[in-house]
Amino acid sequence: MGAVMKEAIAGCHVARLWICLAYFASGFNTGAVDHEADGSTNNGIFQINSRKWCKTLDSSGPNMCQMHCFDLLDPDLKDSVICAMKITQDPRGLGSCGFNTGAVDHEADGSTNNGIFQINSRKWCKTLDSSGPNMCQMHCFDLLDPDLKDSVICAMKITQDPRGLGSWETWRHHCQGIDLSDWVDGCDL
């Protein structure tokens, strides 16, 4: 495969990630503002948080994107894209804008969903007190690392399981059985 083809495929993959992020973060609503319990706000199409990334009228955070949060609410996506690109260059990457690599969700059965992909401990990883099959051969806390290597390896194993993506509730509720061709338009290289 030539360098141009590899670059086109990589660019297409990145575009799909951005489109997916915008869809699930804000429903493509450039004017979306979500108020957090700590007083910060998530702003615009990518739901960029004011705690670190933009300045509100009353915030004193670091304003890493060097812009006002209301600039992120403009239908002209220039400022939103510039700020989102800065976020992806942050050491925490997408984890710094809502993709919480350290997320742990506790289920009623005592299992936990872990990390950015919410991988369940019932079958896929080992907690300190679990005796499940540990199909990914790793501890659940390995899935909480901002370095996504273990999370990606485990997620790839899950997709190879007979249930595949059906292992994720989000997939079953939002994607399974739905025509997803719009997500990959222009990517059939």
How would you concisely characterize the structure shown here?
This protein has 189 residues and is an alpha+beta fold. The chain has helices at residues 3-26, 78-89, 149-160, 169-174; strands at 33-35, 41-43, 48-49, 104-106, 112-114, 119-120. Helix content is 29%, strand content 8%.
If you had to describe this structure to a student in words, what would you say it looks like?
It contains 4 helices and 6 strands, in the order αβββαβββαα. By secondary structure, it is of the alpha+beta class. Strands 1-2-3 form a 3-stranded antiparallel β-sheet. A 3-stranded antiparallel β-sheet has the order 4-5-6. The chain has helices at residues 3-26, 78-89, 149-160, 169-174, and strands at 33-35, 41-43, 48-49, 104-106, 112-114, 119-120. It has 2 domains: 3-93, Lysozyme (Orthogonal Bundle); 104-181, Lysozyme, CATH 1.10.530.10. One of its GO terms (biological process) is fusion of sperm to egg plasma membrane involved in single fertilization.
Q: Do you know the CATH topology of the largest domain?
A: Lysozyme
Strand content: 5-15%
**How can the largest sheet be summarized?**
3 strands, antiparallel
CATH top level assignment of the largest domain: Mainly Alpha
By secondary-structure content and strand pairing, the structural class works out as alpha+beta
Q: What's the assembly state of these chains?
A: single chain
Biggest sheet: strand arrangement: 1-2-3
Give the total of beta strands.
6
Radius of gyration: 18 Å
| Percent helix range | 25-40%
The helix count comes to 4
Shape: globular
CATH architectural type of the largest domain: Orthogonal Bundle
**Distance N terminus to C terminus?**
11 Å
* SSE sequence, one letter per element: HEEEHEEEHH
Unreliable spans:
4-11
How many individual domains? 2
Average pLDDT works out at 77
